[in-house]
Amino acid sequence: MTLQFLADGLVMGAMTGLGAIGLTLTYSILRFANFTHGDLISWGAYLTLTLALLIGAVVPNGGSIGPFSFGWPVLAAGLIAMALTGLLALALDFLLFARLRRRGTAIIMVIASFGASLALRSLLEFLFTSEPTYFSREIQIAMPIGAGIHVTPDQLCSLGLTALLVSAMHLLLTRSHTGRAMRAVSENPALARIVGIDVAAVIRTTWLLGGALACAAGVMLGLTVQIRPYMGFDLLLPLFAAAILGGIGSVPGAVLGGLIVGLAESAGVQFIGANYRAAIAFLLLLLVLLIKPTGLFGVRA
Fold this sequence. Notes:
- This protein is mostly helical.
- The chain has a single domain (4-136, 153-291), classed as ABC transporter involved in vitamin B12 uptake, BtuC (Orthogonal Bundle).
- It is built from twelve helices and two strands.
């Protein structure tokens, strides 16, 4: 029996956990399930691809970096796209969700986010077609690391970048004034406003961070798999499962939940079959809701 599914599950779980951070922040602070988050992942990947092509055309000789399949244009484009995806999320809030917060309820915002998700996905498919594309068509040789497990340099890079971004988010939320304000608004928005916290600024920061992290997850997913308009939508159920499993509002919980979901799905593909991959995430979500709705870290769901 090969243990390759462990490496595949860790890589996929890391990307799921990274995407789930933005989802859990949005849910804990804005109190609604944001279905557009999956499409922000797709938009982040396509924005990065487009910018990388433009940068590569303007400044040639941007070959691959060391053993990786991508060059510095992708890195530069990824940083710019993270900011642009954050601005896209902020624009969605300004045009849609902010208006509904003033006059609607949580269920109305959920339905609106579902409609916005369809619009974003359709626009993406209209602009780029439904054909899959890639950051690079270079074939990487997987390196053996023991026990029959092979990984590519891009997969190791994705794991390293995920660890870096998660650490940065943890420090931001626990050591900075912005992070403390976000945690206060998550606990009690009304009380946070009374003590002088700018709740509107916290909401803007949440959208920016969520969009940026969604873009990062999309880039890593595009590097290790492929880029498609439906790539984020297909990841949406595992994202919700990871966020709820780890505990709503917990960054380490979202990452741990993502790793568990990724490993469970990969094991399911190995031992049951690829046709049941989506069912595994759904089953995990149901079990958590039935057994421990607050998640592993016990944060209010």
